Amino acid sequence: MKVLGISGSPRQGSTTDQLVKEVLSTVDCSTEFISLAGKTIHPCRACLGCVKDNTCVIKDDLTQLRQTIVSADAYVIGAPNFFSMLNGLSHCFLERWYQFRHREGSAVSAKLGVAVGVGGGMPEPPAENIKKFFEYNRIECIGSVCAQGPACCFTCGYGETCKVGAIHMFYGPDTKITPELIPDLAKQPDPIAEAHRLGAELGRRLKGFAQAT
What we know:
By secondary structure, the protein is α/β, with parallel strands linked by helices. It folds into 2 domains: 177 residues, Flavodoxin domain (Rossmann fold), CATH 3.40.50; 33 residues, no CATH class. 34% of the residues lie in helices and 19% in strands. The chain is built from 6 helices and 6 strands, in the order βαβαββαβαβαα. Strands 1, 2, 3, 4, 5 and 6 form a 6-stranded mixed sheet that branches. Helix 1 crosses helix 6. The longest helix is centred in the last third of the chain and has 24 residues. It is globular.
């Protein structure tokens, strides 16, 4: 049995990467982690080219990932919050799972999933978006975990003075950026504990499937 972890963050080493890996760390079976950072994944163009054989006709970096997705028994998919929804890269990636659904396709259906959300102020929306994609693809979501990550405003160079940025929005005017203020997953024991619980539960469920077959 194998669990595939996917981080849709466009930044390597992000909080999304870290939290997906925390879930994978307690899964008692084979795991693989893939970051979508730097990959070219186009949106679904509704061309219906995948209807006949449930294989997307668009050629990009998702083409090489298709077999890895299909061969996995469960998924841990994470995305950051961009404008109160999951980011565009993650959305394009999950849109293209449309290729698996035609004529009650079984490539990913009846598998298990965990949704991971990260945000500067609201980490829950991307997890909810991912859960909806799971539902469309008939993947059973056994749970979700969310954590706070550092908004880009912490490092853009203008975070302390920009009146429409995340620093003012979340912490108020005249806030100074200090190392203590910057969100860090290591300082969030509850999300880490929940990630570990979900990973262990995912492993138990998969072992049950293996024993039943």
